[in-house]
Write a structure and sequence with these properties.
About 15% of the residues lie in helices and about 25% in strands. The chain is of the alpha/beta class. Strands 1, 2, 3, 4, 5, 6, 7 and 8 form an eight-stranded mixed β-sheet that branches. The chain is globular. The relative contact order is 0.21.
Length: about 210
C-alpha cells in the first residue's frame, strides 16, 4: 500500500510507502535490507506517466522503521496509507512469506526469505500495490522473469536454481533472485486510473491486521 503524490515542481509522481517491521526475527539490518530492495528494484525501470495531462517521472520513496513493541491497536487503528506492517519470524506456517491479499498493508515474512538479493520483499510489495501473479507460468524463451512471477515458474536454464537440471524437476524452476521489476509491472499499476484529491491518491487498501507468531 502507498500514497501517490503529484509533485509539480519536480515533474514527478512519487509513490510513498513506509515499512514497519516487528516480530521475533525483526531487526534493523533486515528492515533496511527490505527497504533498500523495494526502493531500488521498483525504481530501476525509468518510466513516465501522464496524469491530468502532465508528463511525470515515476519514482518510489520508501522509508522503514523497526518497532519491536508494536501494539495490535496501533495497527488496527492506522489511517495512514503509507504504513505497511510486516511481522518477521524464523518460521511461517506456510513455510513462505506472504501478505494479506492484493492491495493490502500487512503481511508475515519468513526470515530466511529475506537474504540479500532475494527479491522477496520487492515481490510482496508488488502484491500490496494490487499486482497478482501472472496466469501463465512457463516463460521459457522470454528472458528474465518479472518481479511478480512466483516460485515454481518455468524459465530459461540460466534463471533456474540449477541451470543443469531439466525444467520442472527439483532445481529446474525459477530462482527468485533473478526477478526484475519491468516497465510492464509499472504500467500494470494503472496509476492514471487513480482518483487524486489535492494531488494525492491511495494505491491499495487497509487490511490493518496484526499477525501473531506462528
Amino acid at each position: 500500500m502507498g500514497e501517490v503524490e503529484i509533485n509539480v515542481p519536480s515533474d514527478s509522481l512519487v509513490i510513498h510507502a513506509h515499512i514497519v517491521t516487528y516480530g521475533g526475527a525483526a531487526d534493523m539490518e533486515v528492515t533496511e535490507r527490505m527497504r533498500s530492495e523495494i526502493e531500488n528494484m521498483w525504481n530501476e525501470p525509468r518510466v513516465s506517466v501522464i496524469i491530468f495531462d502532465l508528463l511525470l517521472d515515476l519514482r518510489f520513496s520508501i522509508t522503514a522503521e523497526l518497532i519491536p513493541t508494536l501494539d495490535p491497536h496501533t495497527v488496527a487503528s492506522n489511517l495512514n496509507p503509507r504504513n505497511n506492517y510486516f511481522r518477521i519470524e524464523t518460521n511461517s506456517v506456510h513455510n513462505i512469506s506472504f501478505v494479506d491479499g492484493l492491495g493490502c498493508n500487512t503481511g508475515y515474512f519468513q526470515y530466511d526469505n529475506l537474504y540479500e538479493g532475494s527479491t522477496t520483499a520487492a515481490h510482496e510489495f508488488g502484491h500490496t500495490l494490487g499486482l497478482d501473479h501472472p496466469s501463465y507460468l512457463d516463460i521459457r524463451g522470454i528472458g528474465a522473469p518479472g518481479i511478480m512471477y512466483p516460485r515454481g515458474t518455468l524459465v530459461d536454464p540460466q534463471y533456474q536454481y540449477d541451470p543443469n537440471v531439466a525444467a520442472g524437476l527439483p532445481g529446474g524452476t525459477m530462482h527468485p533472485r533473478f526477478r526484475k521489476v519491468r516497465r510492464e509491472d509499472l504500467r500494470a499499476l494503472k496509476l492514471n486510473w487513480l482518483r487524486f484529491y489535492n494531488n494525492k491518491a491511495v494505491l491499495g487498501g487497509f487490511t490493518n491486521f496484526f499477525h501473531t507468531p506462528h
